[in-house]
Design a protein that fits this description.
By secondary structure, this protein is an alpha+beta fold. It has helices at about 5-20, 25-40, 45, 60-70, 100-115, 170-185, 200-230, 235-260, 270-300, 305-330, 340-370, 395-400, 405-415, 420-440, 455-470, 490-505, 525-540, 540-555, 580-595, 610-645, 650-675, 690-720, 725-750, 755-795, and strands spanning about 80-90, 130-135, 150-160, 190-195, 445, 475-480, 515, 565-575, 605-610, 685. A four-stranded antiparallel beta sheet has the order 2-3-1-4. Strands 7-8-6-9 form a four-stranded antiparallel beta sheet, with helices on both faces. The protein has a two-stranded parallel ribbon with strand order 5-10. Helix 14 (about 420-440) runs antiparallel to helix 24. The longest helix has about 40 residues, at about 755-795. The radius of gyration is 32 Å and the shape is elongated.
Length: about 800
């Protein structure tokens, strides 16, 4: 490559000659590698880890709470649940359906548990079903009926996290049971059954991700094929980049699966989406640049092999340098703490390395295989260099990968005449959107349930649940209090917990608390619970009271080793959806109140919290810290690469500034668009959008800048510092814009998925790449270069320290 050095150019010249001569063994090698990998690699789903919170660092507060819970209550299970909401619109109380619930519904659920290996409470480790609770159960069963007694709950507690795939068979089995009861007319007339729960929400989210991944992959391929056909108008020439990237992506995925199988790295289900989209976008771009140089060489060299060898020799360094920028930029995600970000920083760069190798070897081998038939139906009539005054042949026009070539001539002329005006106008247009991004930078949505498609089964069940019960019932927050000086099983220890619960109850409206269940009040503070306790006291049912106390001690006080009697749990049920954005802020208030409202005797206690909302809060904090870290390391590493390649200081700083400005403008446009689409329901962009948008946009933006600067260095030698810049814009305008449209189309395929996060990220990436392609690279960058060169030539100073640069070529 021109910016890399003579040694690198010689290396790619050797590679070009080798591929041109040994193209058949090269093709056979790639095909054989694909077949072998397909045969030995297991499916992605078998090794990919599911879940969201499982990728959090081990030392976050919610994980510390889980660890303490496991130590203090080893016989208890913690995981997700399936909630069946039984409701009536008539005047018949829900208790009239108790026989159906006990025999048909619970009986069917117990049968499912038996088929899974038995309840985990009875035979631990054999089943993901821990227990089944209905409103027929003694004691706590009354808490599963609403105040109007027209709705009741059946709760199936599971031992796995709500996003884990192991919960799926049980979810599907429960759905089948309800469908069977409907078909057999065993459900009482007027009784409605809806299904929700954290495990059902998790299943729907994962299923939506799978469907999105399949749609995205399909749309990606067809969009690229369509764009390539429009660009080249030659079917084989359009299919060569697709075949090149297809082989590379499949081999990459199989390699990653094998590495994960041998515990050398971890994979998540969504990781495959980003690998596919980025690999196709970048890989096709690399092939386009190779074919563009191949076209130029064919006009000068009639022999296909020689032209191909020269093309690889001249463009190989450029492709490698630009790919290195993208690879190193995205690799900075490996410094993130959140597991999914970290693995993206490992898996995507590894895949892009394979894609680059395929573009430099497999793609030219296909060009040699197809020969001149690659350009069918337009066939070559001879070299244009033999007829200097003749018009370009149809074949030559076919090889020009972009229409509107005349536009770039006009842009180049305008840049030479008014670079300052063009620069200022471009900035003024984008500044408002950048301001929107800065103002709303922290306005992100961490509500996982908001990602669900509108037709997800769990949403209907959640709406039914919220009509009759507090939304937080499916995801309570568990508080663990540890104090070595307090025996919580004594009357004094129980009194202290009761005092804390009473203080929280006084603030329950402010803290959005629906119920608090403790050792002192095991049934909670609801009106139903208080009524049950009053009846027990009035009837002097000592046996029932004693049994309730025993159950409370077993459930709320630790009985494990050194923690025995010194750890107690408090279950807090909020009236907010535990997976919503609002629940995070409310969780912070509850945590603060727990520490400030402690009785004096409990001061200094270790307090740990866990649950869905606790993990969601940690997810917010960890990913926010990751974003701040990535915002520093990605530009820093790309700046170093640009300095090495360009042998300058000021220009790399400006190039970094342009892509950061482009990122802010893109983020602001995305905020504005999705707010306009749903002003009432918009609660911020998905939390994953900024970090992926920043990393990819900065890396890809500099990728295109490197292609431009490569040509600038070459053209400056022949046309001078000013005209050389505009000639570079004209000569690279078509090919870089074609690559930009390909990349934008690839990213736009993300919008074909059903998940909100994919739609937002797909739009943002597509818009950002187009902004970089049509504004930053052809206007902001060359306008600045012209102004800089003129200032340098005026004698007022030399800001840029330029080192000797070898002959350039792209």
């Amino acid at each position: 490559m021109s910016l890399g050095g003579v040694g690198q150019t010689a290396m790619f010249s050797v590679l070009g000659k080798l591929v041109a001569r040994a193209w058949l063994p090269c093709l056979a090698g790639w095909v054989l590698l694909l077949i072998i990998m397909r045969l030995i690699a297991p499916p992605w789903d078998e090794v990919a880890e599911s879940g969201q919170f499982s990728f959090l660092p081990k030392d976050v507060p919610s994980n510390r709470g889980k660890d303490l819970f496991k130590a203090a209550f080893p016989k208890e299970v913690m995981g997700s649940n399936i909630v069946l909401v039984l409701s009536r619109q008539d005047e018949i109380p829900i208790y009239e359906d108790k026989d159906f619930v006990e025999h048909n519904l619970k009986g069917g659920l117990l049968q499912i548990a038996d088929e899974e290996g038995g309840l985990a409470d009875d035979q631990r480790g054999r089943s993901v079903i821990a227990r089944i609770q209905t409103f027929n159960d003694e004691g706590k069963g009354a808490l599963l009926v609403n105040g109007y007694q027209n709705a009741g709950l059946v709760v199936i507690d599971l031992t796995v996290e709500f996003l884990e795939r192991r919960a799926w068979p049980v979810v599907y089995a429960v759905e089948s049971l309800i469908d069977r009861l409907h078909r057999e007319n065993k459900i009482p007339e007027g009784l409605e059954i809806a299904m929700t729960g954290s495990a059902v929400v998790g299943r729907d989210m994962r299923r939506a991700e799978q469907e999105s991944a399949n749609l995205i992959e399909t749309w990606t391929i067809w969009l690229i094929i369509g764009l390539l056909l429009v660009i080249y108008r030659a079917p084989l020439l359009a299919l060569i980049p697709i075949a090149t990237v297809f082989f590379a992506v499949q081999i990459s995925i199989d390699l990653l699966v094998l590495l994960a199988k041998n515990h050398l790295l971890t994979l998540s289900e969504t990781n495959r989406i980003y690998i596919t989209v980025l690999a196709y976008g970048a890989g096709v771009d690399y092939c386009l640049f190779l074919i563009a140089r191949y076209r130029e060489e064919l006009q000068q060299e009639g022999d296909l092999g020689e032209a191909l060898a020269r093309a690889i020799g001249k463009v190989g360094g450029t492709l490698t340098a630009s790919a290195t920028t993208v690879i190193c930029g995205i690799a900075m995600l490996a410094f993130a703490q959140f597991g999914k970000y970290h693995q993206a920083g490992v898996t995507i760069p590894l895949s892009l390395c394979i894609v680059l190798s395929s573009a430099l070897t497999f793609s030219p081998s296909l060009l040699r295989l197809t020969g001149r038939y690659a350009f069918w139906p337009l066939s070559p009539k001879g070299r244009t260099s033999d007829r200097p005054n003749s018009k370009p042949s149809a074949w030559t026009r076919c090889l020009r990968p972009m229409v509107f070539q005349g536009i770039w001539e006009k842009i180049g002329q305008a840049l030479e005449r008014r670079p300052g005006l063009i620069w200022l106008a471009s900035v003024i247009v984008l500044v408002p959107f950048a301001a929107i991004a800065v103002r709303n930078y922290q306005y992100l949505d961490y509500g996982l349930a908001n990602d669900l498609p509108k037709d997800a089964p769990s949403l209907e069940g959640t709406h039914d649940l919220e009509r009759h019960f507090p939304a937080g019932l499916i995801g309570p927050t568990t508080v663990l209090i540890r104090n070595e000086a307090v025996d919580f099983t004594t009357s004094e220890g129980t009194r202290l917990i009761e005092s804390l619960a009473d203080r929280l109850e006084e603030r329950k409206d402010d803290l959005h608390i629906e119920d608090i269940r403790t050792l002192a009040k095991p049934l909670g503070i609801s009106a139903t619970a208080k009524d049950i306790m009053r009846r027990l006291e009035r009837l002097s049912v000592t046996e029932a009271s004693r049994k309730l106390r025993e159950q409370a001690l077993a459930y709320y006080a630790s009985d494990a080793g050194a923690l025995k009697n010194h750890v107690t749990r408090v279950d807090i049920i909020p009236n907010l959806d535990p997976l919503s954005h609002d629940s995070i802020d409310n969780f912070e208030r509850i945590e603060s109140a727990l520490r400030s409202e402690q009785p004096a005797a409990l001061q200094g206690s270790e307090i740990e919290l866990f649950g869905a909302t606790a993990s969601l809060r940690d997810l917010q904090q960890v990913t926010t810290q990751d974003l701040k870290r990535i915002e520093v390391v990605v530009p820093a590493v790309i700046f170093v690469i640009l300095m090495i390649l360009l042998r300058e200081v000021v220009v790399p700083i400006y190039l970094i500034a342009t892509v950061l400005f482009s990122y802010l403008a893109t983020l602001g446009m995305t905020f504005a668009l999705f707010w306009l689409l749903d002003p009432a329901g918009f609660s911020g962009l998905d939390w994953k959008v900024p970090i992926f948008l920043f990393t990819i946009l900065v890396a890809v933006g500099e990728d295109y800048n490197i292609f431009l600067m490569t040509r600038v260095k070459e053209e400056e030698k022949s046309h001078g510092p000013i005209h050389g810049v505009t000639r570079a814009v004209v000569n690279t305008g078509g090919i870089i814009s074609s690559c930009g449209f390909i990349m934008a189309g690839t990213f736009a395929s993300l919008m074909s998925g059903s998940l909100v996060e994919m739609k937002e990220l797909g739009f943002a990436l597509a818009f950002g790449v187009l902004l970089d392609t049509l504004v930053v690279r052809p206007l902001l960058v060359p306008a600045f270069l012209i102004l800089l060169r003129r200032w340098q030539g005026s004698g007022r100073g030399h800001v840029v320290a330029t080192l000797p640069t070898p002959p350039a070529s792209m």
